[in-house]
Amino acid sequence: MTEKEQAISPEVFDHLVQLAALELDEQQAEYLRRELNSQLSAIRELEAIQLDPETPLASHGVPYDEHNSPALRADEWQACADVDAITRQAPQFEDGYLIVPDIPHTTLE
């Protein structure tokens, strides 16, 4: 496939927008489609780089060892001095709990 054949067409993009339930005007949609195609083009360029077959998949160019990386700090629990100041910022707080709204969802068939 050529690069043009691999690009996201307006029809495919419209379908993806519908699946994601996005509301985009024509200008926003075209801008986003161009940006996505630019990202795909950059990914294709990266895929074209020849790698040594012995290179592990999760490898990167910066080694992480005790000689060139600082030691990890220990996690330390620290109590908040003013819990009320924090909880007053929450939209809903009841009986010591932050109340969050249900996330609406639909069941896929």
How would you characterize the overall build of this protein?
By secondary structure, this protein is mainly alpha-helical. The protein has a domain at 1-50: Orthogonal Bundle (Histone, subunit A). It has helices at residues 3-6, 10-19, 26-47, 83-87; strands at residues 93-94, 97-98. The chain has a two-stranded antiparallel sheet with strand order 1-2. The protein is flat and about 60 Å long. It starts with a helix and ends in an 11-residue tail after the last strand. The mean pLDDT is 85. This is Aspartyl/glutamyl-tRNA(Asn/Gln) amidotransferase C subunit. Keywords: Transferase.
Order of helices and strands: HHHHEE
Q: Kindly estimate the percentage of residues that lie in beta strands according to DSSP.
A: under 5%
Total number of strands: 2
Report the sheet with the most strands, covering strand number, pairing sense and barrel closure. 2 strands, antiparallel
CATH architecture of the domain at 1-50: Orthogonal Bundle
* CATH fold call of the domain at 1-50: Histone, subunit A
Question: For the CA atoms, what is the radius of gyration?
Answer: 24 Å
List segments where confidence is low: pLDDT < 50 over at least 5 consecutive residues.
Answer: none
Which CATH top level class of the domain at 1-50 fits? Answer: Mainly Alpha
Mean pLDDT: 85
* Number of discrete helical segments: 4
Measured distance between first and last alpha carbons: 33 Å
Helix content estimate? 25-40%
Shape descriptor reads flat
Structural class: mainly alpha
Record the strand order, biggest sheet: 1-2
